[in-house]
Amino acid sequence: MVLCALRQQVLRCSSHCRTWARLPQRQRSGCVYSSIHGFNQDEIKEKLQAFHGGSIDLLKQDSGIAVLTINNPSRMNAFSGSMMIDLEERVSQLENWPEGKGLIVQGAAETFCSGSDLNAVRAISNQQDGMKMCMFMQNALTRLLRLPLISVALVEGRALGGGAELTTACDFRLMEAGSVIQFDHKHMGLVPGWGGAARLVHLVGSQNALKLLGGAVKVDPELGVNIGLVDGVLEGHQKTEGAAPLLQQAENWLSRYTKGPAPVIQAVKKVVLSGRELPLSEALRTEKDIFGTVWGAPANLEALASKSKHK
Ligand SMILES: CC[C@H](C(=O)O)C(=O)SCCNC(=O)CCNC(=O)[C@H](O)C(C)(C)COP(=O)(O)OP(=O)(O)OC[C@H]1O[C@@H](n2cnc3c(N)ncnc32)[C@H](O)[C@@H]1OP(=O)(O)O
């Protein structure tokens, strides 16, 4: 009986994936929850809007690398309800940025983010509203991870609770020496709700994920690199004479992977996304379709023209 139920679940999932792959990009990018799951975006936005404070600031640069700043320094960059709405709107802006190639997510005032604003959490502590907030943030963070941009979470200070989950919604994580990522939900009698557990298992494996969540382990840069959660350690410029500002160091790191025409860099992210999320056959078909968007496109033709000169 159990096997039959599991098979049904797998079939439902794979049909969902097939459906996912055929959905228009906009829907695919945010298809975790919709009205069929009882999710009403406008209803939850109205509730979240009641909890003001802070902002999510977006700077789109001519280099094609954008900077998204979690900005609520008086609350260690905790997410108020209005900041959750800001985040979703900034992700929409980035989904529609043809020149975009990269994204750095950082916190203001030399710290990353201390999760949900506990004042908001206290006010929406009933189960229904809590789950609606989670659905809203899971949609927003899934769309963030699925942006056709190569993204980096730049961690200074502390990334706690939902802030730790936010780091997993980026392709890479860079940590300043001395900074900490801590999934401290257990101390709140909680587990991750913004999708951080599911993404953490993919990043570090289920055993390491169990340790980080079960032990509310303080992940320093060395541990983060060792378990595969962290992709680089940066020297804070206050601590190291002559070191460039952290954001500049992060941009230098990211620019190694975003050099080139935006359509090509965006196609790179899309083919990796489909390999990461879709069953093999679907991923191969998606890869073929994405290949078709760059084959014979301007960047390809220019490269061919320049190569033909090297006889
Ligand atoms: C799914 C996500 C999940 C959920 O929503 O269920 C969560 O994210 S739950 C929240 C998880 N986050 C935390 O548990 C972190 C709570 N904050 C702290 O542990 C400390 O504030 C810390 C370690 C971040 C900083 O400690 P420190 O002593 O250096 O400073 P203060 O504690 O005095 O903090 C300064 C100032 O910021 C306010 N603050 C900090 N974090 C939050 C927060 N998450 N929500 C609201 N306000 C926060 C703190 O109250 C202080 O304000 P003040 O007015 O000066 O008292």
From TrEMBL:
Keyword match Transmembrane helix: no
An example Gene Ontology biological process: fatty acid beta-oxidation
GO molecular function, one term: methyl/ethyl malonyl-CoA decarboxylase activity
InterPro entries in the record: ClpP/crotonase-like_dom_sf (IPR029045), Enoyl-CoA_hyd/isom_CS (IPR018376), Enoyl-CoA_hydra/iso (IPR001753)
Keywords of this entry: Cytoplasm, Lyase
Single GO cellular component term: cytosol
Compartment(s): Cytoplasm, Cytosol
Catalytic activity: (S)-methylmalonyl-CoA + H(+) = propanoyl-CoA + CO2; (2S)-ethylmalonyl-CoA + H(+) = butanoyl-CoA + CO2; (2R)-ethylmalonyl-CoA + H(+) = butanoyl-CoA + CO2
Domain of life from the UniProt record: Eukaryota
The protein's Enzyme Commission number: 4.1.1.94
Its job: Decarboxylates ethylmalonyl-CoA, a potentially toxic metabolite, to form butyryl-CoA, suggesting it might be involved in metabolite proofreading. Acts preferentially on (S)-ethylmalonyl-CoA but also has some activity on the (R)-isomer. Also has methylmalonyl-CoA decarboxylase activity at lower level.
PANTHER family to which the protein is assigned, alphabetical: ENOYL-COA HYDRATASE-RELATED, ETHYLMALONYL-COA DECARBOXYLASE
Family: Belongs to the enoyl-CoA hydratase/isomerase family.
Official protein name in the record: Ethylmalonyl-CoA decarboxylase
Natural source organism: Haplochromis burtoni
